[in-house]
Amino acid sequence: MKQAKPSGPRKRVYDEAFRQVILMLWEAGDRMCGKRLKAVLPNLIESMERHGHLGLDAELRTRVMSVSAATIDRLLTPARAESGIGRKSRRTLDTSVKRRVPLRTFADWDDPEPGFVEADFVAHCGGSMGGRFIHTLTVTDIASGWTECLPLIVREQTLVVKALDVLAARLPMGLKGFDTDNDGAFINDTVIEYCKERKIAQTRSRPLRKNDQAWVEQKNGAVVRRLVGYGRFEGVRATKVLAELFESARWYVNFFQPCFKLLEKVRVGAKVKKHYQAPATPCERLLAVGGIDEAVKEQLRRRRAELDPVMLLKNIRDAQAALVALASDVGPAENAAKQTDANVEQFLAHLPQLWRQGEVRPTHKQPPKTPRTWRTRTDPFEGVWPELERMLTAEPDVTAKELLERLQAEQPQRFTDRQLRTLQRRVRSWRKAMAERLISSCAPGEAA
């Protein structure tokens, strides 16, 4: 015989303490999905414990390390739910210049070695391309996903060359290949000669084919737009703030933000099935790949051991607040000071509760909506409201439906059942005003 299942509620495996730990790690990881958070848990917990931001006993640590990605997403569901005309003409490049740069499509990337990057510009124009504004040069290594961002005060070829010098020194794997779109700031004699002198393989995508640069296009949204938003930024001050933001973001993204990498695509009829590698940070992919000197890998390990993800996240939030201050009417120093007064301990203490505030990135917060105070239709009860007030005063418990029935008995052609909701709102507002007046009259008066 089958044994009867025990009755009663199931024992809770994940209690509130466990959920609070997951919430803190989720916020410290900048609200990534469960699969990516699961992949980064060992490094994230170890870094936070080493810097004194987290203290877990052995039993709780074991449970956190063994939790599945699906369970993480399930525990975070309430927090996520509450946190809540024609084509423009294009200026074509000189054909002779374009011919000097060979084409490369998305199908031509055959598992390249680290150092072959895709580059693109992100315009911080606020929706208007008029005037001058800052551009972010985004560079993504195809093999590892390592991403670097540099703000340029103007989009100009000599600045691109200087930015390439900076990027070549920053990238752990060096710069071996440079793939761009057909932007004139990339495809010109200055950049072509620069790449030729330093033996950097320069290629370009097909015009109007963004999928040829899928790696960097994804980072434009997942990194740059996620950090900066869609506002307009211009001038030297905004460029410096963006540089500070990207300096903290490069360590936070490349060491503590796992990303997926497409392994293969298989078409089955009308559907395309995609298979991805296990999520890993760009740093982890560089440490696992061959062709990189052990000295570089050891430097990456030392750097990872020194980094504090919570401090990096706080620096990112402070820089975002400074950007908002530059774009608002409030003085930059005053607004930024309000955002940066909290120290790391206070910032850490608020992490498990930040989900209650909804959007926490200052660059993405929307201004509060002005409450609606006007009417779009004529009030059908305006002429009889004094009479209704007398009825409400004489009979405080009378309902709006009863009042409407009395009006219909006197004037059946004027009032209909469809006006009940309007009358209910008016009666509710009147009773609320009467209650507030009663409370104020009961309050102790001022001394004579």
Word description of this protein:
With 448 residues, the chain is of the alpha/beta class. The protein folds into 3 domains: 16-82, no CATH class; 95-265 and 274-307, Ribonuclease H-like superfamily/Ribonuclease H (Nucleotidyltransferase, domain 5, 2-Layer Sandwich), CATH 3.30.420.10; 385-440, no CATH class. Helices cover 48% and strands 9% of the residues. The protein has 17 helices and 7 strands. It has helices at 16-28, 34-50, 58-66, 69-82, 95-99, 157-170, 189-197, 214-228, 236-256, 282-288, 294-306, 309-327, 332-340, 344-350, 385-394, 400-410, 420-442; strands at 116-123, 135-141, 147-152, 177-180, 201-204, 262-268, 271-276. A 5-stranded mixed sheet has the order 3-2-1-4-5, with helices on both faces. Strands 6-7 form a two-stranded antiparallel sheet. Strand 2 (135-141) and strand 3 form a beta hairpin. It is extended, with a radius of gyration of 30 Å. The model is unreliable at 331-339 (pLDDT under 50).
Shape: extended
Number of strands: 7
Percent of residues in helices comes to 40-55%
Radius of gyration: 30 Å
Name of the top-level CATH class of the largest domain: Alpha Beta
Roughly what fraction of the amino acids lie in strands? 5-15%
Q: Quick summary of this structure?
A:
The chain is α/β, with parallel strands linked by helices and 448 residues long. It is built from 17 helices and seven strands. The chain has a five-stranded mixed sheet with strand order 3-2-1-4-5, with helices on both faces.
